[in-house]
Amino acid sequence: MGESSEIIFDKLVYSCAFEKHRGDEEFIPEHFLGFQLSGETHAFYAGGNTIISENKIVLVRRNQLIRTVKYPGKSGKYQFLSISLDSETLRQYALEFKITVGSSNNKQKLFFEPDEFLNAYFLSLSPYINKTKEATPKLANLKIREAIELILQSNPDLKNILFDFSDPYKIDLEEFMSQNYMFNVSVEAFAKLTGRSISGFKRDFAKVFNTTPKQWLKEKRLDEAMYRIKQKREKPADFYLDLGFENLSHFYFTFKQKFGLTTTEV
């Protein structure tokens, strides 16, 4: 049985699995607060990797790429609950309480805030998961605002993350792509994350790499695959997904097309 995700109300998502499940690459457009009810989530991103263990709470900031592997716990079940802190609600909250922000650490990705109030907050959502109580739009909005209030109580400095509504600044394209080429996401996502329009991204990309994003990504991934096979003696089945290839047969085809050799002939 694979993973199932259920939208309890507009911004609340409950994920459940009974076996190891590898998630797709995800572009995170909004901040979200998550709670690991059971099992573990292994999260991989450009800055490294993190293990979200049982009963841990995580705040993930918007506009980044993440890949996950989900492991059931001792009970044989994986459960993760996440609530999206959308920009519209955050803007209204900041306006209502006249919140001003300072500079934030743009390189910091994941924040862990073990806190008895936040734990109690997520436990209070269980009736909605179990369908013993219906979440009306008004109540759903109150629960999101409650999450914001608890985050700020836990760490007031997180206001500089939550209420930073600026668009991603135009970052160094070569450095960013070298750190994120393995994520199998759209050109639109890469453009947004580097602070560019799609046309601007393609134009700047051609200046830096003298080729198209699609072609460069394929070549970069295949070169890394050759290194892993030849130098690290790894098997393609163990890494093709990590390099952004959708399936093994497509990987074998493109590898042979580029190098004129099969992986066993390297």
Automatic annotation (TrEMBL):
Residues 171-266 form the HTH araC/xylS-type domain. SMART domains: HTH_ARAC. This is AraC-type DNA-binding protein. GO terms for molecular function: DNA-binding transcription factor activity; sequence-specific DNA binding. Keywords: DNA-binding, Transcription, Transcription regulation. It holds the Pfam family ExsA_N. It comes from Chitinophaga ginsengisegetis. InterPro entries: AraC_XylS_family_regulators (IPR050204), ExsA-like_N (IPR054015), HTH_AraC (IPR018060).
